[in-house]
Each structure stands twice: as C-alpha cells, then as structure tokens.
Design a protein that fits this description.
34% helix, alpha/beta, 4-stranded antiparallel beta sheet
Length: 236
C-alpha cells in the first residue's frame, strides 16, 4: 500500500536541562505507509526512541508537523493526545510493562477500559481474540510472574493488538529476551505484518532490523539513510 498513515515533516525535539540545550531530533522527515513494516536503527543516543515516543504521542515535538491518519496531532492537548493514543497506537515495550497484580486477561483488557462506551462483552471478546492470536489464551488466568520473559512479551503484543490500533510501535521488544525468545517475538511481528498490520520497530540489532521491509537509520538526531541495513551502514 502507498497510503500514508504517518507523515512527519521538519520535526525537531530539544530538551532543556540546567540551561543546556540537547537537540535530540533535528529536522526529521519520515512517512510510514499503511501496512508497512519499518525498522528504525542507529547508535545509542541517536534519537530513535525519542522519535518513537513522538510517533506514539507520548511526547510532543518542539517544532515540525506530524499527521496521523489524516489528523494533525503535533499540538494536541493532553486529553486529546491520550484519547487518540488509546485508539490509534499499540505499544510494545522492552520491559513488557505488565502489571504484576493483574491477571493476563486483566492486563490485556486494561487499555480498553478507557474507551468510553465500549461494552464489557466486546472488551472480553477482543481480549480473547488477541490472546489467541499470540498463542497465550491458555494462560489468561495466570499472573505475569508465572510466565517466562518470552511469554510476557507475547502478552504485551496481545495487549497492543486488542485495541485494533492503526500502528504497532515496538521499542527494543527483544531487549530483555534471550536470542531464541527474541526470534520468536520477531517471527510473531512478521506474521502480524503479513496479516496487514502496520509496524514500526526500534532496534539496535541488525538481525532483527532485517525482518522489516524498510529500514531507517538515524545518527545525531537525523535520518541519514534508508534501505537495506548493510547498504545503510556503508553510507555512515
């Protein structure tokens, strides 16, 4: 598909601490089309996680424009940003971010409880379907501490899927996993992409970046190249 889901133009992010300006992002231009699988990579401190936070409406840019699903979202107030984030964005974090005293079912359902007007039966159906999709429906009564790291990350993927988001954002989703579980999670993301999901992943691992159909390499807060990662790295 060539229909833009995300369009970012001349985006900058400056952090101010103790009278020091840190330019995390400097004039980013980026388009992610509906149904695309994009990997963002680059050295530590290059701005990739900051960019993902802005794409996910967890943060706002200092300057520039950001259009998500046809809506300008760079200057939304907190409540509007939260509402659109809940409806449009599915997050997968490195540290899973599951709540220890909630069951797997309750963890996956939690974001849906913030959607006004969604019936409880609809929430339960979505939870069941998303857990089945990641092969974890049989553990829905368990608690996070009773699962392995790989299983917890699968639950985190299910939580992201349950809201039928426009895009899945994954920030180093294999960072706390061994290589076997990391590969399993990346295979799951590939399967979801094959089913039509739009995915943007941040990873420092070239093996996992290679799973994506397009790779964006950042350096010092700028997009310096796109394409196959071995070609990208040769241009750095």
């Amino acid at each position: 598909m060539n229909e833009p889901l995300i369009q970012i133009e001349k985006l900058t992010k400056v952090f101010y601490t103790d009278e020091i300006e840190t330019h995390a992002l400097s004039g980013i231009d980026l388009t992610i089309n509906r149904g695309e699988y994009v990997a963002m990579s680059g050295p530590s401190g290059c701005g990739k996680s900051t960019l993902l936070s802005i794409i996910g409406l967890l943060d706002s840019p200092t300057e520039g424009t950001y259009t998500l699903n046809g809506k300008k979202v760079e200057n939304l107030n907190f409540s509007d940003r939260s509402r659109i984030r809940n409806q449009e964005i599915g997050f997968i974090f490195q540290s899973f971010n599951l709540i220890g005293d909630l069951t797997i079912e309750e963890n996956v359902e939690l974001p849906l409880t913030y959607r006004a007007g969604m019936p409880a039966l609809d929430r339960k159906r979505r939870v069941q379907e998303s857990l089945e999709r990641v092969g974890m429906a049989h553990r829905m009564r368990h608690y996070p501490a009773q699962l392995s790291g790989g299983q917890q990350q699968r639950v985190a993927v299910a939580r992201a899927l349950a809201g039928s988001p426009s895009i899945l954002l994954a920030d180093e989703p294999t960072g706390n996993l061994d290589s076997k579980n990391g590969e399993a999670v990346m295979k799951l993301l590939q399967e979801l992409h094959a089913e039509g999901a739009t995915i943007c992943i941040v990873t420092h691992d070239p093996r996992f970046a290679a799973h994506a159909e397009r790779q964006v390499h950042l350096f010092d807060g700028k997009v310096i190249a796109e394409g196959e990662l071995n070609h990208v790295l040769a241009e750095v």
